[in-house]
Amino acid sequence: METDRHIAHMDLDTFFVSVERLLRSDLNGKPVIVGSLSDRGVVAACSYESRRFGVHSAMPMKMALRLCPDAVVIRGDMDRYSQYSRMVTEIISEKAPVIEKASIDEHYLDITGMDRFFGCYTWMHELRQRIINETGLPISFGLSVNKTVAKIATGEAKPNGEKDVPFPLVKPFLAPLSIARIPGVGDTTFRLLRSMGVATIDTLSNISPDMMERVLGKSGIVIWRKANGIDNTPVEPYSEAKSISTETTFEQDTTDVAMLRAKLVRMTEKLCYELRRDQRLASVVTVKLRYSDFNTYTMQKQISYTSLDHQVRPVVEALFEKLYQRRLLIRLIGVKLSGLIQGTQQLDLFEDTSEMVHLYQSLDHLRHRFSVKAVRLASGISVPQQPPKPMHNVDG
């Protein structure tokens, strides 16, 4: 039963900013913005001090600096953030029976049954203190009977706090909160519900589910259930093995290196598009080669969390160059992206101009409307000597 579950949600507070403050104590207490240093750039993350001026993520940097001219702007370092993210994941994984890495700075834990040995809240408090002590990063958690209430509780616990919402308190806890607190209620849905006079979760929870479905379709039922504290979604165990991959076996073995490189570019474009479409990020790149003698070799590299072609492509190309040493005929090539978590290319906004982000959005729109092959990089266009047999796999 849902009332018997103990689900926790942990969220690293202003994660990028907090990591920067570990390295620079002079940033403590100051308004900090992590993002592109270019006027055409956008905000990737910002401190609570800068948020008081109206600054928020994905805002154009020019506007952010007009609102908060005294802000300290830092370009950011995704390698460093990925390193700290993995550090926190490892600490949680050592202790929690079931862990889901929801994003670079969020984790869900299913600690059902732990109350038989020690109180779940006490257990979570000790885990949070260990993370703070070992990493120096502030982190908040919410504990309740399901993922929705736990995530909302974390929002109420911030900054750097704890919130326990046992089953009898779920409805009273949710009732006075804004509907904007419900996961899945975006700007469009929020404006529609507000136009109907719905402002609080209590009001929303008392609307009939039939009406919610008429207004918002099937998502209306999901939102209604969340407003009533109902969410049976399981905590999905996190695994670095989760991956997407694509590989091609050639009808005739080849040594056409130009064609092979072009094929790898197209594979990378396809997989990165799938990541962005599904709002996921990868942290491991693997390239696979099978020679004409059927000997197969793979090589992988851990990377910063990303879903952008121009960050993955050089890694794929470098791995291919290291692998292709025998100079024999090649029978098969493949690319795999693994270590997947939820997230969007917004994580890369501190190093990409808004034009770059808009370019990706435009290209993905064309691919979604027509096909993945509708738009290709010039470096990925090559006429292969033999027609390949494509095979595509999705794992996890």
Describe this structure in words.
The protein is α+β, with helices and mostly antiparallel strands. It has three domains: 1-166, Alpha-Beta Plaits, CATH 3.30.70.270; 175-238, DNA polymerase, domain 1 (Orthogonal Bundle); 243-395, DNA polymerase, Y-family, little finger domain (Dna Ligase, domain 1), CATH 3.30.1490. Helices cover 39% and strands 23% of the residues. It is built from 14 helices and 14 strands. The strands form three sheets. Strands 9, 10, 11, 12, 13 and 14 form a six-stranded antiparallel β-sheet that branches. Helix 4 runs antiparallel to helix 5 (120-135) and helix 12 runs antiparallel to helix 13. The two termini are 27 Å apart. Residues 383-391 have low confidence and may be disordered.
User: What is the strand content?
Assistant: 15-25%
Please estimate the helix content: 25-40%
Kindly report the average pLDDT value: 87
Low-pLDDT sequence parts: 383-391
| Sheet/helix structural class | alpha+beta
Number of helices: 14
Shape, per Cα inertia axes: globular
Q: Tell me the name of the CATH homologous superfamily of the largest domain.
A: Reverse transcriptase/Diguanylate cyclase domain
